[in-house]
Every structure is written in structure tokens, then in C-alpha cells.
């Protein structure tokens, strides 16, 4: 019987695609102000075609006060001047297509910026008015409404409610913000909100985008009555655990919205896609976002969060293949993005801090750079050997570790401010990437300016220092993507292979992928490794070293 997750139709490109995430602030800066921009991205796109990715996903570049690096959107249908203009967006879309790649853009439907005209109108309008109904305004508790309406906490720390001053100058209602206080949550029970977002989808589809990465796709619908947290939920919220059951994440009602969005996309062709950012557990629940009439994909955060442990990895791969195939979708795989510690650092940590807390120089158990990069490379080759879709985050193809030495005064993440510096937040994975070892700002910006400081030692990771250098991380990624396409690994048949404890081995079609996580070398004469070596994350010289992955054409 044909596998439900395989198809030859070009519309199904996404089922095996490698999609590269661009974080616009930090990719390439054309105008020299130290913040990346759309013209910068367009000017550097050839490097991504050269890398061999199928598509790019571009994080928000919409008009925004940038309180949460663009995830606080003040106009969903315009480009922020810091990133350029709508013409620049059109040029980026056109050039991406010209180079044979697709382009997916971010959409942020859970909240807007507090500077959005909708929210400004809501503030100016009286309580219980139609303008306020777009958002989640409630009266406070306590004798004079001085207490928040419920116990919910912001993902960035502190209460999820802020009280407004009414037109008459007195303290009034409270509004809900699951993230920063500058990101009020929209009320998706309102038909007006649904219609507005249909129009926003069409606006970008009309401009030619191939799909959307949907921000906080698990959060739009809140439990009726906005009940207080249970004790268990309160603990989960206080440690930033967004995957635990909660009254505001993973509510059943969100699925209806995705069916509606799917219908909007289908009118533009069956090749337009939706990918969910849905932090829910277990994987069987996450897979519900990727049902045939909802989204196409969901980021596999269960895989991303798995520590460097062979048993845990086997289990999550099994669970992923099983959960997604039940809904007729391929699994996705991802190791890094703009919200998590880069995997070249994270996988070497003794204890990984909770999501969004980040790491700094004084975090205990940090790996040596060499060790971290080596493990990161092994993890990448393992991931790219799996069937399904894969997501890469800018800079991982250079082997970038997390930036650890960002001074307090340079930090920008709201999580840092809302916790009084208790959480480092996500700045360490957002530092502008190095292009040219000898240029100012490592070629990120013509002036050398950079909105977050780049570590002095990053010249060695620069793209021009690695391109054409055998064994470099960049060349490893290029070879892996070319082989993955040639060998059709994205749609291959997966089967585990028996291996000693601490070794992961599986066949993907005629290719065998083996990862040594034992901490000891494995002898190359082992029958497990018989065949022609196609690619290795660490040179194979007499033995197969720990923290290495090898791709073999089976004998
Ligand atoms: C998830 C995004 O990836 C993150 O960067 C952002 O802070 C939150 N959603 C809020 O939009």
C-alpha cells in the first residue's frame, strides 16, 4: 500500500522540503543601521540557493515598535521602515522564486502590538464597547477592580494582565497579554477578528508568498470564562512551561480556525502551506494541527527539546513518525530557531534551562566550543537523514554557538526585562550572523554596526572562511542537502537497525545513518558501518569517534 505521507505532486513540495529560517534583524543589513533588512536578505539569497535549501521562512518584518523583535505587529499589511518597504518585500519574493526557492512568511494572529490602530481605538473607547471586543478586556477583581481578572502569567514572566487608564483619568479595565504588555491578545471569538485575518492572508498570498508560519498557533482560543490556573498549571506557568495543559494553550476551538485558513489558502492553489508553531504535548496532540483539512505541518518541538541521549532520541523519532503518519502528514524535524539556545551549545549542556530562559557565561556546565560544535554537527546529520520536512535556523550551517557574553545594557529580549535579568532570554541565538571574516561586522552590515554585539571570535565561523573548505560545517551542510535530495531521503522508507547501547542506527532507503553517542570510539570494522561512506560529521580515521554521525551507502 502507498504510504499516505508520500506523493509525487509538486504541490506536495513541503512534505520533504528543507526550509531555512531567516530572522530579518540578524541576517544581512543593506542600509548600514545595524539592523538587518529585506534588501539585505535579497542581496544574500544566492548563498541560500548555493546551500541547497528548498524554501525560506522569514520571521516578521511588518510595521512594529519592535518591543518583541517584530512579533508585536502594528500593521499586518505593511513593512516596518527598519526593514524597508512593500516594494522591497515584492523584490524579495520575486528573487526567491527566481532562484528556484519558495518563501513562507510569519503571521502573528494571537496578538497585535499595543500601537496597532485596533488597540488604540479600543483604548479610546469605553468599557464593553465594540472596539474593546476585538481584544480581551475584563473588569478587575477586588473592591475597586484593583486585582487582575485571573491568575494567568505572561510567558515572559509576571502577570498576563495590564490595567488601563480610562478616558476620565481613572484606573479601569484590564487587558490580557500572554506575552509582553505591548502585545495584547486578540479575541478570536469575534467574527470581525476572523475576517480581518482572512484579509491579511489574502494580502500576502496576492503578493505571491507560498505560505505562512503561524505564531502561537496553540493560543488563539482561551477556555470559556477565563478560569484561574489550577495549582499544577500555576507551577507550569511560573517556569515558562508552555507545553503543559493550560486554559489558554491547546484549546480544541483553535482547530476550526485552521480549517477556515486552509480553505483561504486552497483558493490560491494546493501548494500554499501553513506551518504551526504549537507548543503542545504529547506529539499525538501536536499532530492534530497537521490534519489534512488544517495545517500542513507543525514544528516538531518534542524533537527539538530532546537531550543528547540515544534512548530518548529513538523514542521521540518513533513517536513522531507514528503520530504524524496517523494524520497523513510527514513529520518535521528542527533543532534550532530564534527562541531556543542554538543546538551547537544546547546539546552539550549538562542541564538545559527551561524554554526562553537562555544561557549566559555563568550558566553551569557549558560545553567547550569545539565540543558543542562537533555534537551539533552530529545532531544535524542525524536530523537530515530522517524522512519528512526539516527546518534550519540561520547560522546553524556555519556551526554558530550561542553568544554568551552579551552585556546587560545591550540585551533586548522582553523576557530579560520582565524578570529583572533573572532570565537571559533569547538574545544569544539572535546575534547577527558572520558573512566575511575580514569585513567590519563580519560583513553583516557595511558600517560594521550590529544591533546585538557580535563575539570577536566569530570570524572563524564566517561563511567566506568556510565556503570551499573541505570538512567545514558549511560544506557539511551543503553536501548533506545535496545528498538528501539525490538520495530522496525526505521521502525514504525508514527502518531501525540493531545497534549497541548508545549508538543510533537506521536505514533510510539504501542509506544508513549511524550516530555514535556512546562517549567511546566505535571500530570501523563493525558490520553496522559496512558500505561506502557518503558523509561524516567528524573525519573517519581508523575509528568512528564519539559525537559523530555517518551516512553510508549500504554494502
Ligand atoms: C513565538 C515567537 O517565535 C516568539 O519569538 C515570540 O516572542 C512569541 N511567539 C510571541 O509572539
Commentary on this structure:
The mean pLDDT is 96. It contains 15 helices and 20 strands. It is an alpha/beta fold and 555 residues long. Helix content is 26%, strand content 15%. A hairpin with a 5-residue loop joins strand 7 (161-165) and strand 8 (171-176). Bound molecules: 1-deoxynojirimycin (NOJ).
Compile the SSE list and pairings.
Elements: E1 18-22, H1 38-51, E2 55-58, E3 62-63, E4 75-79, H2 86-98, E5 102-107, H3 117-124, H4 130-133, E6 137-138, E7 161-165, E8 171-176, H5 191-206, E9 211-214, H6 231-238, H7 254-266, E10 273-276, H8 283-286, E11 297-298, H9 301-304, H10 310-326, E12 332-334, H11 343-346, H12 369-384, E13 389-393, H13 414-418, H14 463-466, H15 473-486, E14 494-496, E15 503-508, E16 511-516, E17 522-523, E18 531-536, E19 543-544, E20 548-554
Parallel strand pairs: 1-2, 1-13, 2-5, 5-9, 9-10, 10-11, 12-13
Antiparallel strand pairs: 3-4, 6-8, 7-8, 14-15, 15-16, 16-20, 17-19, 18-20
Helix pairs in contact: 1-2, 5-7, 12-15
1-deoxynojirimycin binds next to loops.
Amino acid at each position: 500500500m502507498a504510504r499516505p505521507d508520500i506523493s509525487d505532486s509538486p504541490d506536495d513540495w513541503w512534505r520533504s522540503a528543507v526550509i531555512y529560517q531567516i530572522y530579518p534583524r540578524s541576517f544581512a543589513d543593506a542600509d548600514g543601521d545595524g539592523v538587518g533588512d529585506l534588501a539585505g536578505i535579497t542581496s544574500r539569497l544566492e548563498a541560500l540557493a548555493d546551500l541547497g535549501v528548498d524554501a525560506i521562512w522569514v520571521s516578521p518584518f511588518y510595521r512594529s515598535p519592535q518591543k518583541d523583535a517584530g512579533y508585536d505587529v502594528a500593521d499586518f499589511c505593511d513593512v516596518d521602515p527598519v526593514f524597508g518597504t512593500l516594494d522591497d518585500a515584492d523584490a524579495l519574493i520575486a528573487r526567491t522564486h527566481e532562484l528556484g526557492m519558495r518563501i513562507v512568511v510569519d503571521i502573528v494572529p494571537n496578538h497585535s502590538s499595543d500601537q496597532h490602530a485596533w488597540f488604540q481605538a479600543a483604548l479610546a473607547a469605553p468599557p464593553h464597547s465594540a472596539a474593546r471586543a476585538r481584544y480581551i478586556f475584563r473588569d478587575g477583581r477586588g473592591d475597586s477592580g484593583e486585582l487582575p481578572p485571573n491568575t494567568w502569567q505572561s510567558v515572559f514572566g509576571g502577570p498576563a494582565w495590564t490595567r488601563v487608564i480610562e478616558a476620565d483619568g481613572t484606573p479601569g479595565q484590564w487587558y490580557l497579554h500572554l506575552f509582553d504588555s505591548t502585545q495584547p491578545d486578540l479575541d478570536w471569538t469575534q467574527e470581525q477578528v476572523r475576517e480581518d485575518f482572512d484579509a491579511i492572508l489574502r494580502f500576502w498570498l496576492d503578493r505571491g508568498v507560498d505560505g505562512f508560519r503561524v505564531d502561537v498557533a496553540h493560543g488563539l482560543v482561551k477556555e470559556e470564562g477565563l478560569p484561574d490556573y489550577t495549582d499544577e498549571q500555576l507551577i507550569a506557568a511560573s517556569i515558562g512551561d508552555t507545553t503543559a495543559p493550560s486554559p489558554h494553550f491547546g484549546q480544541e476551538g483553535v482547530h476550526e480556525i485552521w480549517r477556515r485558513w486552509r480553505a483561504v489558502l486552497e483558493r490560491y492553489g494546493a501548494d500554499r502551506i501553513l506551518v504551526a508553531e504549537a507548543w503542545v504535548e504529547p506529539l499525538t496532540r501536536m499532530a492534530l494541527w497537521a490534519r489534512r483539512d488544517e495545517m500542513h505541518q507543525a514544528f516538531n518541538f518534542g524533537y527539538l527539546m530532546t537531550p543528547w541521549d540515544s534512548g530518548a532520541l529513538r523514542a521521540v523519532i518513533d513517536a513522531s513518525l507514528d503520530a504524524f503518519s496517523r494524520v497523513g502528514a510527514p513529520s518535521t524535524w528542527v533543532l534550532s530557531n530564534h527562541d531556543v539556545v542554538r543546538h551547537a551549545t544546547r546539546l552539550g549542556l549538562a542541564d538545559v534551562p527551561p524554554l526562553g530562559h537562555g544561557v549566559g557565561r555563568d550558566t553551569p556546565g557549558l560545553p567547550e566550543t569545539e565540543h558543542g560544535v562537533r555534537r551539533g554537527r552530529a545532531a544535524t546529520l542525524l536530523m537530515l537523514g530522517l524522512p519528512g520536512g526539516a527546518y534550519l535556523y540561520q547560522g546553524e550551517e556555519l556551526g554558530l554557538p550561542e553568544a554568551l557574553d552579551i552585556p546587560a545594557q545591550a540585551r533586548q529580549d522582553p523576557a530579560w526585562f520582565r524578570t529583572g535579568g533573572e532570565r537571559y532570554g533569547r538574545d544569544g541565538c539572535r546575534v547577527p550572523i558572520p558573512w566575511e571574516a575580514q569585513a567590519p561586522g563580519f560583513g553583516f552590515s557595511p558600517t560594521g554596526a550590529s544591533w546585538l554585539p557580535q563575539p570577536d571570535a566569530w570570524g572563524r565561523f564566517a561563511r567566506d572562511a568556510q565556503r570551499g573548505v573541505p570538512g567545514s560545517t558549511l560544506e557539511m551542510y551543503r553536501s548533506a542537502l545535496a545528498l538528501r535530495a539525490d538520495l530522496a531521503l525526505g521521502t525514504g522508507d525508514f527502518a531501525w537497525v540493531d545497534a549497541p547501547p548508545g549508538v543510533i542506527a537506521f536505514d533510510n532507503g539504501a542509506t544508513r545513518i549511524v550516530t555514535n553517542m556512546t562517549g567511546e570510539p566505535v571500530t570501523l570494522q563493525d558490520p553496522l558501518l559496512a558500505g561506502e561512506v557518503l558523509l561524516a560529521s567528524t573525519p573517519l580515521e581508523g575509528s568512528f569517534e564519539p559525537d559523530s554521525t555517518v551516512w553510508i551507502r549500504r554494502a
